[in-house]
């Protein structure tokens, strides 16, 4: 239990310390911390290359959503709803929701760009959404925070999804397949797809988007996994049913060690995606210094 509740405490502390919630007591001033950690509205739908139209990111997200939804539906149809006892299915649902949400934000971004930009060959600029002369500073700050809200939520989902996908696929291919046997779980085509397609598509989206990635939001990833474990514990406390993963059963020998190992895996899994994002912006800065969209 220590391996579950300790990460919950750590995650709660990180959210309390670094998130911007406690800084929003007033809209009179947007602090530097809010500017640093709040996602600006267009980062949710703008590609990382300035010359790339947001439509391409929209198209990729729609295609990814359709592929993941089809894989999820086919998997549940074939193996039944018991799949939702598995962390894999939770992660697949999360990443499918990520692409659905991202598609909506990208569609909004394309619509807004179409409405606010004159894209004629001889004129390429964006009209301001507000008139600075007639807008008070308080209203401007309120608009900034309001416009950033859904993009801010989307960034949290992105970072939580990235960690969950890495944990799901790495545990499956590195731990479960070589060392464990799960009753009634066959390694067929759909199983391979749901343990690889999610990572491939998320890496593709990461390569295209302009989202940032911060260390402290590993807290949401920790809470996501902890919530799954608590769900399994509560379920087995009231219902006599099977464990989706053998090491979740606390009566199994070395179960605490398994819990500890999986808890530690959260750090490299999340760190991998942090490295990917850092590497992407490093390459863009070196190869496309004038055309890439740098983080503000």
TrEMBL record:
Entry keyword ATP-binding: no
Membrane-traversing stretches: 55-74, 86-111, 143-165, 171-201, 221-245, 257-277
Keywords of this entry: Membrane, Transmembrane, Transmembrane helix
GO cellular component: membrane
Top-level taxon in the UniProt lineage: Eukaryota
Keyword rRNA-binding set for record: no
Listed PANTHER family: OS02G0130600 PROTEIN-RELATED, TRANSMEMBRANE PROTEIN
The protein, known as: Uncharacterized protein
């Amino acid at each position: 239990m220590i391996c579950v509740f300790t990460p919950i405490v750590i995650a709660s502390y990180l959210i309390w310390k670094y998130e911007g919630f406690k800084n929003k007591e007033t809209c009179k001033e947007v602090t530097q911390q809010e500017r640093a950690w709040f996602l600006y509205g267009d980062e949710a739908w703008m590609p990382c290359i300035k010359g790339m139209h947001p439509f391409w990111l929209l198209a990729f997200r729609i295609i990814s959503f359709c592929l993941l939804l089809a894989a999820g539906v086919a998997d549940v149809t074939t193996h039944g709803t018991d799949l939702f006892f598995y962390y894999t299915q939770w992660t697949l649902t999360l990443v499918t929701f990520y692409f659905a949400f991202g598609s909506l934000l990208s569609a909004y971004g394309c619509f807004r760009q179409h409405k606010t930009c004159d894209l004629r060959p001889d004129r390429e600029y964006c009209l301001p959404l507000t008139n600075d002369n007639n807008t008070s500073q308080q209203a401007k700050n309120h608009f900034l925070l309001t416009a950033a809200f859904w993009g801010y939520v989307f960034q949290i989902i992105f970072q939580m999804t990235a960690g969950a996908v890495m944990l799901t696929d790495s545990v499956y291919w590195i731990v479960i397949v070589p060392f464990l046997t799960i009753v009634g779980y066959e390694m067929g085509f759909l199983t391979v797809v749901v343990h690889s397609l999610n990572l491939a598509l998320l890496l593709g989206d990461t390569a295209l988007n302009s989202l940032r990635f911060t260390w402290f939001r590993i807290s949401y990833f920790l809470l996501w996994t902890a919530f799954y474990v608590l769900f399994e514990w509560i379920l087995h406390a009231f219902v006599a049913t099977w464990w989706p993963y053998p090491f979740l059963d606390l009566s199994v020998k070395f179960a605490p060690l398994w819990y500890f190992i999986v808890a530690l895996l959260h750090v490299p899994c999340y760190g991998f995606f942090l490295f990917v994002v850092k590497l992407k912006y490093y390459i863009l800065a070196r190869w496309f210094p004038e055309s890439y969209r740098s983080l503000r």
